[in-house]
């Protein structure tokens, strides 16, 4: 079976698994709800039926469905952001969390939590937090790009070291904000540092929907340019690709998707490096297939992690960032060892 045939088979398989897992996640919890009942409640809500007297409907529509939708969108955002960064820097180790983009977004959000209480108290948390996180992610990405790129070439070592330095600096300032925070602010900052979908609401779903839809809409227009960029910027330019506009579009989209995801759920690492790497091994680097597969597998991975996070230590809840780090860190080391063997060979 060729890689293209595997890819064409992979997409419907991932989509089916995602639907099955979403129904299972909505029905699984302290109040078990059968799959046919979950589907019936959702269809009834779409038809505008009044289900306010049903306890199961309240659990599905007010608690579990927003959380599942948030997990799907954040997982897709992080996976696609990782794939875009790896293509832009032509470096398979680039990931928003590893190179400090997520830390920059979290720093800006933490600054708003500690220093911008008056804006949050004014009822604008779903505007100020995503906007702040986006600004932090965009600034970090631009600084990283300017440091690591010279004469249209990106140094892998400089990229990683600069990312580590920027992440450490953002972490230090976030630590300082934690030191001066009061008890309530300290609880919110702990949420950002560990990552959690426990605060999922429809307001957060709506706030995250715009960058998610924008990212999905842009993918078909980015695939050809990213394929050409893989062979070099000069070659891509001679093939008619507007390289600079492509770079700007990728940087803005990565910052928007990462910033909005961090604002909604805190720092969730390694999704952006695990998912694209797995898919490249399965179906190759063709972006017209890789990017939609990242959407589905990223959503599937984070939804599975969140379902485990809220069930394996019930009634308590494990921060989802711990689970993704537990999976992603060994995978990251495996990639490093493979690259080392390649260099040694």
Detailed description of the structure:
With 345 residues, this protein is an all-alpha fold. It has 14 helices and two strands, in the order ααααααββαααααααα. The chain has helices spanning 3-27, 35-46, 55-89, 101-115, 117-121, 125-148, 156-180, 183-194, 202-229, 233-238, 243-265, 271-283, 287-309, 320-344; strands at residues 149-150, 153-154. Helix 3 runs parallel beside helix 9, helix 4 (101-115) packs antiparallel against helix 8 (183-194) and helix 4 (101-115) crosses helix 11 (243-265). The relative contact order is 0.16. The model has no long low-confidence stretch (mean pLDDT 82).
Strand order of the largest sheet: 1-2
Could you say which overall geometry the principal axes of the C-alpha atoms support?
globular
Q: Which secondary-structure class do the elements indicate?
A: mainly alpha
Return the average pLDDT rounded to an integer: 82
- The low-confidence runs, each spanning 5 or more residues with pLDDT under 50, are none
Q: Number of DSSP strands?
A: 2
Please give the structural blueprint.
Elements: H1 3-27, H2 35-46, H3 55-89, H4 101-115, H5 117-121, H6 125-148, E1 149-150, E2 153-154, H7 156-180, H8 183-194, H9 202-229, H10 233-238, H11 243-265, H12 271-283, H13 287-309, H14 320-344
Antiparallel strand pairs: 1-2
Helix pairs in contact: 1-2, 1-3, 1-13, 2-3, 3-9, 3-11, 3-12, 3-13, 4-6, 4-7, 4-8, 4-11, 6-7, 6-11, 9-11, 9-13, 12-13
């Amino acid at each position: 079976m060729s890689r293209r045939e595997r890819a064409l088979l992979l997409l419907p398989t991932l989509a089916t698994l995602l639907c099955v897992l979403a129904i299972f996640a909505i029905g699984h919890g302290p109040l078990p709800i059968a799959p046919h009942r979950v589907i019936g409640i959702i269809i009834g809500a779409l038809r505008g039926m009044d289900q306010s007297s049903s306890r199961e409907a309240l659990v599905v529509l007010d608690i579990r469905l927003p959380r599942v939708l948030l997990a799907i969108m954040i997982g897709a955002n992080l996976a696609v952001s990782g794939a875009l960064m790896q293509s832009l820097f032509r470096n398979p180790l680039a990931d928003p969390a590893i190179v400090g983009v997520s830390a920059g977004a979290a720093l800006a959000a933490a600054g708003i939590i500690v220093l911008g209480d008056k804006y949050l108290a004014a009822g604008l948390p779903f505007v100020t937090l995503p906007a702040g996180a986006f600004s932090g992610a965009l600034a970090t990405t631009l600084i990283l790009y300017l440091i690591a790129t010279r004469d249209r070439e990106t140094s892998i070592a400089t990229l990683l070291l600069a990312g580590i330095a920027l992440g450490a600096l953002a972490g230090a300032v976030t630590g300082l904000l934690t030191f001066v925070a009061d008890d309530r602010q300290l609880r919110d900052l702990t949420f950002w540092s560990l990552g959690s979908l426990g605060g999922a609401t429809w307001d957060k779903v709506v706030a995250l929907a715009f960058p998610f839809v924008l990212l999905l809409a842009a993918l078909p227009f980015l695939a050809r340019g990213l394929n050409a960029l893989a062979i070099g910027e000069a070659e891509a330019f001679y093939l008619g690709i507007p390289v600079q506009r492509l770079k700007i579009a990728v940087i803005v989209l990565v910052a928007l998707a990462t910033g909005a995801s961090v604002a909604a759920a805190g720092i969730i690492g390694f999704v952006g490096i695990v998912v694209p790497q797995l898919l490249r091994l399965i179906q190759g680097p063709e972006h017209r297939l890789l990017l939609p597969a990242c959407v589905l597998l990223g959503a599937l991975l984070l939804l599975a992690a969140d379902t485990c996070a809220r069930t394996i230590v019930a009634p308590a809840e494990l921060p989802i960032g711990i689970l993704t780090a537990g999976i992603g860190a060994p995978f990251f080391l495996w990639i490093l060892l493979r690259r080392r063997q390649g260099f040694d060979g």
